[in-house]
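Purpose: get a first structural picture of the assembly so the mutagenesis plan has something to point at.
Setup: two entries, given in the order below. No constraints added.
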Amino acid sequence: MLLPKARLRRVLNGEEVDRPPCICPGGMMNMVTKELIEKVGSGFPKAHMDSVMMADLAAEVYETGCFENYGVPFCMTIEAEGFGAKIDMGTGISEPHVVEYIINSVKEWREIPRFSHRQGRGRVVLDAIKLLKERNSNVPIIGNLTGPMSTASSIIEPVVFYKELRKANKEAHELMTFITDQLISFAEGQIEAGADMIAISDPSGTGEILGPKLFDEFTVAYINKIIDSVKKAGIPTIVHICGQMKNVYTQLNKLKSDVISFDSIVNMKEARENLPDRLLMGNVSTYAIEFGDPRKIAELTKKCAKDGANIVSPACGLGMKSPLKNVMSMLEALEKEL
Amino acid sequence: MTISKESLLKKLSDAVVNMEDEEVVEICNEYIEAGYPAFDGIMEGLVDGMNRASQLYEEEEYFVTDILLCSDAMYEGLSILRPHLPESELNKERLKGVIGVVEGDTHDIGKNIVKIMLETAGFEMYDLGRDVPLQSFVDKAIDVNASFVCLSTLMTTTMAGMETVVNLLREAGIRGQVKVVIGGGPISKKFADTIGADGYSPNAVKAVKLVKNLLNIA
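Result (structure tokens, whole complex):
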């Protein structure tokens, strides 16, 4: 039987595997639940700010038999906070989120402070990765980035931002370049700390909101800039985009990531038909994982693999109240199929 | 030579569809100076344009960013034409709705679009914003005598808040007078039924039809 890291590596190399890996990258794709927190005895929101607690929780996800990876952090506010946005750290059952933006227009992008990942919560993430590196070396460590569009719409009101993509196109690009360059150095920091893979989630950059042209011009272009740089370090990437894809498959296929991940609204069979040559990840409904039962989740998991997912994962971040037995039923279903 | 009313209405409608918020102001001024009724300018010009935009949205020719820019143009025009409405029209009672994103979630693009569409359809909307404490929906509904409440979330973690709002409306004794419609990424018709909401809408255009149906004004 293959060990988790080897199995994932084989999938990424296009080699045959015994079964798809079952992973949940972290970041926007939260994999920590209330039950798991109780098991470890260290909780949210403290673990968002403490590298030891962060590493312990991430390790527990694997050790309990939920997913075959480590992944940090557990939210998508690290970058926004680094760029100066005010964050509410959430509770044991709700995620940290932005409560105050920094600028009122993309034209003010020069006023945004630089994001240094060597301090604050960026540092916490890097230290957590280092701690995870000392754990089981057969488990892949996934570092996470909030995508450029989502980071941008966390430091400026999204409605204003979306409008200015067209109305202040030049400055919107300047802002995106400024943000992307620092996301790249955060990714480099994570790789240096020991991340085996980088996942970029860009839920605000969906084709449904932007339409094909802006999706191509902003989402794809800036994510690819990050991927180019991560690739140089020899590290593979996952990109997760939310929403319907049917209008943007052509543009989506331009993403240079090794893996593309979707939310549950995308039919895996349809995605497979539209992206025949790509490695796909997804997309077991997180609603089912939170409110369904293990039998139903096992069925969804098997269907997902059958319909063409190379890597099976939840479609989105897990709801904090998802029962552990439900979360674990994904991996169990895949192992049983063997 | 004065330009005909019809051609000005068409220009107004086109300016909204084409997201030309500066041009719309010029045309509105020209329309008022020519002495044409503000009400028609709003309904057959601006709202007509917004309806065409939502048609394009439904056909997936337009996307959220387009709708935001179209609505900017419509609101710019409204701010010019509205003051010229006759007293009777200004004071006319419109059906009221409360809208917001439930506590714990700060994503509000979808909610904003729904609000735009409902305003275009003639409802008076009270927008509570995002991350809204659940009791606020009930308080506002009582305060403005709302006919309906729209709740949205994009996160599974905050869905349960919607059921709480339904229960709070019941406890306040106004559940019978207020229709509850819900929407957002993880929401489904089944979930709406489970929590006792009156309806679910998968998108903004259908939300208008749903509200109208529920209020028997279709």
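Strands of chain A lie at 70-72, 86-88, 97-100, 141-146, 197-201, 237-241, 259-262, 279-284, 311-314.
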